[in-house]
Write a structure and sequence with these properties.
Blueprint (H helix, E strand, L loop, with lengths): L20 E4 L9 H9 L5 E6 L2 E5 L3 E3 L10 E7 L10 H7 L5 E3 L9 H9 L3 E4 L6 H12 L7 E6 L7 H11 L4 E5 L6 H8 L3 E2 L5 E2 L3 E6 L2 H8 L4 H9 L5 H7 L7 E5 L4 E2 L5 H19 L6 E5 L5 H9 L5 E3 L1 H4 L8 H8 L6 E5 L9 E5 L5 H14 L8 H11 L4 H15 L1 H9 L1 H22 L14 H10 L12 H22 L5 H5 L7 H7 L1
Parallel strand pairs: 6-7, 6-16, 7-8, 8-9, 9-12, 12-13, 13-15, 15-16
Antiparallel strand pairs: 1-4, 1-5, 2-3, 2-5, 10-11, 14-18, 17-18
Helix pairs in contact: 4-5, 5-6, 7-10, 11-20, 14-18, 16-17, 16-18, 17-18
Length: 555
């Protein structure tokens, strides 16, 4: 039962709840009209008081309140509930915003091939948020171009770059880290790591020193996206001793720096990555995030770090309600990825954006990952409008059943060439060989000695090009688009239905971000009132997409 009758708010007669205090003020300030109450609840810069007057619940943001129930002030009315002002800057952990130079605890997560583009990072940065540029899958030359673009801004903004674990591409992590150190990129988002890598540790420790007050200073910061406790514990721990020794022996760091490194975590910030797009373990957020919070508390107590460990929330955030749930569970910051892909500033094609805007929560599937194909690792992708997931799974099944390309049955070989590759296997191998001749010649040497590895490289040709076809919007390969996507995309689309956000061309990343933040604050305000027996959410439907101008006028 809602608190709404004939467009006015009423006190439900079945409730036995006692009032919590007294309100005294001008009767003219009391509002019970639906629209006026929605306006009061939506104004986050002011408190809201719920007052019982002549059997009606009225709202106001004026007057004085008292919680002394023993004495009723003259002319006072029962105070049935209240909500303090809700400041967006107070969402999340204030130390996170302070350390990274932000106004809001909101992060645009990295998406490979520059889908999380410099344009997204610039827009988020200009509005007090943080954006990561997706470097995974791109050549060092393309990554350097994006770095130079960010470094050339006349008005610098906070930003970071992705560093993805690349166990199958020898030397790639080192090459990317070299670029980050060369151009003084001070923040990376580490993703898809199963264990610590030497390049990651090398990046983290570059320039570590003590200041005049004896505090450890680390110029480079790491935010790690993880979905497993055993991996998170490695990031919250100091760098492994063996890696420190290697870096000392190779004169990358000094003995003194190694001693300092033993007193800091690899990552001060960890994002508990739940059911996200791309690399994911499909973990339920409501069980994963509290587990990561508990780990953080244990690791902080064990190591007694001079800096606070923090846990952010990522994976599954596509509506104000899910953002509110994240902050309520103690998220230090919010990470949004899938939903940003459909924004106009993303580095993908209009065709891919339209497909994402039409996706439902069930229109996703797991498919073999191109970067960890042989290991059987999977990624979460869009299923609707593309056959990529099914075709990629077919490739993995053939890889598991056969030891070489030559061992493929004639029917399977024909299917590969006609339907999936749309080219001969020989031509695909020629292109693959040329790619690795420039990228990693050791892969060719291994393929010459291992027919099964050669098969993997040929199959990875399709897995590697499919996201590029989506980014480029190649019409003739539309059914082969690999679009990383989690259920948050469908949730956002359902929430945005009927609003200006329904059309992809209206989805701007800052508008989306501010709606998620503003909406989460409204959701928490409504929850606070509901916990006092006042169910305004169903009656007022206050959490709908707002224009950015409307949001700014209310915060």
């Amino acid at each position: 039962m809602s608190l709404l009758d004939n467009n006015r708010l009423i006190w439900p007669s079945f409730s036995q709840q006692m009032h919590s205090g007294w309100w005294k003020g001008a009767a003219a300030s009391l509002k019970s009209d639906r629209a006026e109450c929605a306006e009061l609840l939506g104004n986050l810069s002011s408190p809201v008081f719920a007052v019982l007057k002549d059997g009606e619940i009225c709202l106001t943001n004026q007057g004085d309140i008292s919680f002394d129930l023993s004495t009723r002030p003259s002319g006072a009315l029962p105070l049935m509930g209240f909500s303090a002002a809700s400041i967006l800057e107070n969402l999340g952990d204030a130390s996170f915003c302070h350390d990274h130079g932000l106004k809001y605890a909101y992060v645009g997560g990295s998406m490979a091939h520059g889908i999380s583009s410099p344009e997204i990072a610039i827009q988020l940065g200009r509005h007090g948020m943080l954006g990561f540029i997706g470097a995974a899958g791109d050549s060092p030359a393309k990554v350097e171009k994006a770095i130079l673009q960010m470094k050339s801004l006349k008005d610098p903004v906070p930003f970071g770059f992705n560093l993805i674990h690349s166990p199958n591409e020898k030397g790639l992590e080192d090459a990317i880290v070299d670029l980050y150190l060369k151009h003084e990129v001070r923040l990376v988002e580490a993703s898809a790591f199963l264990a610590m890598s030497l390049p990651l540790v090398r990046y983290r420790l570059a320039g570590i020193h003590e200041d005049a007050d004896g505090r450890i200073v680390t110029p480079n910061r790491v935010i790690a996206k993880v979905s497993r406790v055993e991996v998170a514990s490695k990031f919250f721990a100091p760098p492994p001793d063996k890696m420190l020794q290697k870096l000392v022996e190779s004169k990358v760091i000094t003995e003194q720096q190694a001693r300092l490194a033993a007193r800091i975590p690899v990552a001060q910030d960890i994002t508990s990555e739940a059911d996200s797009g791309g690399h994911t373990d499909n973990r339920p957020a409501v069980s994963l995030h509290p587990t990561m919070i508990a780990l953080k508390n244990r690791m902080q107590a064990e190591h007694n770090y001079g800096i606070p460990l923090r846990v952010g929330f990522g994976g599954g955030t596509g509506t104000p309600a899910s953002a509110a749930a994240a902050f309520t569970m103690g998220a230090a910051y919010l990470v949004v990825g899938s939903v940003h892909q459909a924004c106009v500033e993303s580095g993908t094609s209009d065709a891919a954006r339209l497909m994402l805007a039409n996706a439902g929560q069930a229109d996703i599937a797991m498919a073999p990952a191109g970067d960890m194909f042989e290991m059987g690792v999977t990624v979460q992708v869009l299923k609707r409008g593309t056959m990529f997931a099914m075709r990629a799974q077919k490739l993995y099944e053939l890889f598991r059943r056969h030891e070489s390309l030559e061992a493929l049955p004639a029917a399977d070989r024909q299917m590969l060439e006609k339907t999936i590759f749309q080219d001969t296997i020989d031509n695909v191998w020629a292109g693959t060989a040329e790619f690795f001749r420039q990228r990693d010649p050791s892969q060719l040497e291994k393929a010459n000695n291992d027919p099964h590895h050669k098969m993997a490289l040929v199959f990875r040709w399709y897995l590697g090009l499919s996201p590029r076809w989506a980014v480029a919007g190649e019409e003739n390969r539309k059914v082969d688009y690999q679009i990383w996507c989690g259920p948050a995309m469908g949730a956002f689309n359902e929430w945005a239905k009927g609003s200006f956000f329904e059309k992809p061309e209206n989805r701007k990343v800052v508008d989306v971000a501010m709606n998620l933040l503003y909406g989460s604050a409204i959701e928490m305000r409504l929850t606070q009132m509901r916990n006092q027996g006042l169910n305004f959410a169903a009656a007022l439907n206050a959490v709908a997409p707002q224009t950015i101008e409307n949001i700014r006028s209310r915060i």
